[in-house]
Amino acid sequence: DGGITQSPKYLFRKEGQNVTLSCEQNLNHDAMYWYRQDPGQGLRLIYYSQIVNDFQKGDIAEGYSVSREKKESFPLTVTSAQKNPTAFYLCASSSDPQSDTQYFGPGTRLTVL
Amino acid sequence: AQSVTQLGSHVSVSEGALVLLRCNYSSSVPPYLFWYVQYPNQGLQLLLKYTSAATLVKGINGFEAEFKKSETSFHLTKPSAHMSDAAEYFCAVRAGGGADGLTFGKGTHLIIQP
Predict the structure, then answer these.
(1) pLDDT number for residue B41
(2) Cβ–Cβ of A42/B104 closer than 8 Å?
(3) In whole angstroms, how far apart are CA B67 and each of A107, B25, B33, B95?
(4) Chain A interface mutation, best of B49, B102, B103, B106, highest count of A Cβ atoms under 10 Å
């Protein structure tokens, strides 16, 4: 089945640690996105990538980093510089970033202890 | 820049009653508009999207939305609510020609009363 997978589903981190969230898609989509969701805040764009080896900052990129070495993969690293990292993180992809639908993965819930 | 406003963080309706979730947008260019649904601890599922082909858009699970340019609105409706419709609903916009991410509203939690 084609789709987007995110792992792990739940992640716990101690303050001061970096952590990497995985996002993989087998939809052959060029564009991939990372969003952060907080209660009552909707989704906010962290980073996006339209093509391999290229990515751009979104609205709330500070404290996060990404890479796009393969078309299928777009991992997100939450660094210790992120002041309030506890949130639900959603990855998405689309075949045409200008007009097409974004399809979402199941999400990763990150909790900082 | 674009923005989305969803009126009402919580909406409660009785089972079998009309569902109306409101969404107003702002965009400097013709927009693409989307409604997504999210069940607890899950990702977002597309309900429907507007891409200028028709102003009345039909989606999955009996939902539909009407694009009204004069009112800058894209309200979501369903004639008869079902208990399984209880979820969080998000309206989103992307300016036509833009290649970055979607701009989301803050969401509306739909509660279905038996």
Answers:
(1) 84
(2) yes
(3) 30, 10, 9, 15
(4) B102
